[in-house]
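Quarterly update, task 2.4: glutathione-bound model.
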Amino acid sequence: MDNPMSMRIYGFWRSLATFRVRVALKIKEMEFDEISVDILRGEQFEPAYAQVSAERVVPTFVHDGYSVFQSLAIIEYLDDVQPLPRLIPLDAKERAYARSLALVTIADAHPLVTPRVRNHLAKAFDADARAIEAWSKHWTSEGLAIYERLLARRAPAPFALGEEPGLADICIAGQVVGAHFLKLELTEFPLVGRLAERCFALPAFASSHPFEQPGYTAKPR
Ligand SMILES: N[C@@H](CCC(=O)N[C@@H](CS)C(=O)NCC(=O)O)C(=O)O
């Protein structure tokens, strides 16, 4: 039986959404274990995980036997159960700004490069590996460009909303992780690059990076 106070992520080393939740937990210094669901091998569709996730994606966060899915909902839940350090501000305008920045990647840019989309491009449209890589680079760069324009309007100080890293920084850093996978330079996105440097200087971000996870393999799969 689960330890009733346990915190567990079903995730995958490579997953950007899992990265977001890992960072949030680590900023809050909440202890958790991570169970790997290899989404490149299709483990998300196996019956054992189908019981956990109706959506067949990672991450799923299980706390005290209670399951939460969708990284934004998980991070909001974490702020609710352990408010400090706060990842989403309380002030209505700042809260909306943090969520807006988060959704640029969560709702708009990241979904376009997930395995299910890349697989569908191959299966339904005969896209080859080169075409799929070009697709992924395009949408990842678009996400970075949006962040660059947003950060130019309101300069980071030193993090996206102020002195402490929070939801927005986690999401921008996740978009940058996507660029790392695709070996995209950040020279066109200097504000994003500098923000990411400040984030990855912090252990919570650095140790959550996919390249630091036990399952990491440099070989493309
Ligand atoms: N919006 C979701 C995204 C979940 C998602 O798409 N996760 C990816 C990994 S980053 C996944 O499990 N993909 C499986 C697939 O595409 O088949 C969140 O933020 O949690």
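Highlight for this quarter: The chain has a mean pLDDT of 96.
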